[in-house]
Amino acid sequence: MTIQRVGIVAKHGLVAASEHVSRLGAWLRERGLEPVYEIDTATLVGESAHSARTMARDEMSREVDLVVVLGGDGTLLAMAAGIAQAGRDIPILGVNFGSLGFLTEIRIDELTASLQQVLDGSAAFDKRAMLAAEASRRGEQVDSRIVLNDVVFTKAALSRMIELSVSVSGAFVTRVKADGLIIASATGSTAYNLAAGGPIVHPSVDALVLTPIAPHTLTNRPVVIPGSAGIEIRAHTDGAVEDVFVTYDGQSGYPLRDGDVVRVHKSKRALRLVRTPARSYFELLREKLKWGER
Questions:
Q1: How confident is residue 240, by pLDDT bands cut at 50, 70 and 90?
Q2: Is 30 exposed, middle or buried (0-12, 13-18, 19+ CB in 10 A)?
Q3: What is the pLDDT of residues 148-169, one digit of tens each?
Q4: Would you give the distance in Å from CA 185 to the centre of its chain?
Q5: Catalytic one among 65, 73, 179, 249?
Q6: What predicted TM-score, i.e. pTM, was given to this entire model?
Q7: % of the chain with per-residue pLDDT over 70
Q8: Which phi and psi angles does 81 have, rounded to 5°?
Q9: Going from the N-terminus, what domains does the chain have, and what CATH number goes with each?
Q10: How far apart are CA 256 and CA 69, in angstroms?
């Protein structure tokens, strides 16, 4: 893997990252690499970035060889989706700034050492499965996405519980009556899925998770299905407008109409995430969730 251009993306408004962003740019230039700043990130470093290249996130996904994300899983999720949609296979190095992040797992004091390992070819990578989702209306595709964590169906603020027909690999499963439904990847199992009472799934497991949100029937429990399965969700709104929303990785979404169908399956694209050798996945669970503590 040859790296010449490194994209630098910080969480919007993360002033605490400004000094680190500036140092990172200088560190890269000293090694003959070109730092490329995301447009909003460039404003954090002021004068020092005026002569550097800046790009919008979508453009960056197509132009750089590695992306460093500073602070926040949400920022990393957006970059992961952009890289997948661009058809690229470039890695992301996620740096944590003290928030509860499972994806931005590298600490700021580990940044340069982790980067050096990527450059000299000794870095370890996690390959994370992503989800592909296609929405159809009256038999015509109207939207297509690739996401890392989850596809979530929820009700509008003032609506009653929603109804969704769920099929897996062509077989009808159930008609969910609930506040919503989460389709999560193994990586996404520690996101909204976990908050809704779903199981933690190790990211190396080839599986998808279906988790109802506050179901009307208490026996409607989360279920883990094979990663090779295809999931079809059909919305039932009885003609109501904007009663059912679908959101992708908590980043964006839109209302569904009666009869709209969203099909979700494992994407051919996967995220390559730079892994810290200092901590295992279970150490992260203990650190982030206090998992297993009494």
A1: low
A2: exposed
A3: 999 999 987 766 789 999 999 9
A4: 10
A5: 73
A6: 0.92
A7: 94
A8: -65, -40
A9: 5-122 (3.40.50.10330), 130-268 (2.60.200.30)
A10: 32
